[in-house]
Design a protein that fits this description.
The chain is an alpha/beta fold. The protein has 2 domains: 146 residues, Rossmann fold (3-Layer(aba) Sandwich), CATH 3.40.50; 128 residues, Hypothetical Protein Tm841, Chain: A,domain 3. The protein is built from 12 helices and 13 strands. Strand 6, helix 4 and strand 7 form a beta-alpha-beta unit. The longest helix is centred in the middle third of the chain and has 15 residues. The radius of gyration is 18 Å and the shape is globular.
Length: 280
């Protein structure tokens, strides 16, 4: 049997996550340390995020955590594919590689993305498990498919980018007063600023433009929309405002809350879309 292992930064619908084995990262608020997804939920994470003036930080999963998981895989006579958050964002991929060196039939794949991007890549892996592909075949396919993942996010506030030292306090205050909403992407593991829009309508237009630049959406593959914070009302508004992007290709639009790694820097109120590019 082929098992799919992911780290806790991957965001995907709960019914799919239950088909995977999750290796948790650690989230720290000041002196308070939590095990991501186990001793703190995403909802609790955002409650704490809006209450604190200091950004939390996440710690990578350790080689020992992966080794323990790999040992359980080996004991059952199974093989496994491990999908991690981008190596450019976390040392988790390296931890998994170190642990996998002592095991056969364990294949570690750097997703080169995060959050819902890793989520749709994981969903592809689960499809291939059901089709009967081997762990090695799945790993090879994942390394090809990750090149076509597009993750685009619209932030509601500049406050958390400022807290994280990515922009100045002056720029954050000015941007918030003007209603500036940054639009970001994750490419090859790096977070990039695509542009700034004044108001949600312009931001939605910018998102649509980026989807067009990507050659459109491959509707034969998973699509996932995500949001940060305690409510998905901004995401639902985005879905209504951008209905023409989805209504002719997607049978349904699935949504999920985005976890701590992206949520720390995006802050509450962000909306994001993850899909596979149509043009190859």
């Amino acid at each position: 049997m082929v098992r799919i292992l992911i780290d806790s930064t991957a965001d995907l619908p709960e019914k799919l996550k239950k088909k995977t084995d999750v290796i948790p990262l650690t989230v720290t608020f000041g002196t308070e340390e939590y095990v991501d997804g186990i001793t703190i939920t995403h909802q609790e994470f955002y409650e704490k995020l809006v209450e604190t003036s200091v950004l939390p930080h996440t710690s990578q999963a350790s080689p020992q955590q992966f080794a323990d998981a790999f040992r359980r895989v080996q004991e059952k006579g199974d093989s496994a594919v491990v999908i991690t958050v981008s190596a450019a964002l976390s040392g988790t991929f390296q931890s998994a590689q170190i642990a996998a060196a002592d095991y056969e039939n364990i294949y570690v794949v750097d997703s080169q993305t995060a959050a819902i991007g890793a989520g749709i890549l994981t969903e592809m892996a689960l499809r291939w498990v059901e089709e009967g592909l081997s762990a090695r075949e799945i790993a090879v396919r994942l390394e090809k498919e990750r090149e076509y993942i597009c993750v685009i996010a619209m932030l509601d506030t500049l406050e958390y980018l400022q807290k994280g030292g990515r922009i100045s306090k002056t720029a954050a205050i000015a941007g918030n007063l003007l209603g500036i909403k940054p639009v970001l992407s994750i490419e090859h593991g790096h977070i990039n600023l695509l542009g700034k829009a004044r108001g949600s309508k312009q931001a939605n237009n910018l998102l649509a433009q980026e989807i067009e630049k990507a050659g459109g959406i491959d509707f034969s593959k998973p699509i996932l929309l995500g949001y940060t914070g305690l409510s998905d009302h901004l995401l639902q508004k985005y879905i209504r405002d951008s209905a023409d992007l989805w209504q002719h290709g997607a049978k349904e639009l699935r949504t999920t809350i985005i976890g701590s790694v992206i949520g720390t820097h995006a802050g509450p109120g962000a909306v994001a879309a993850a899909f596979f590019k149509k043009n190859r």
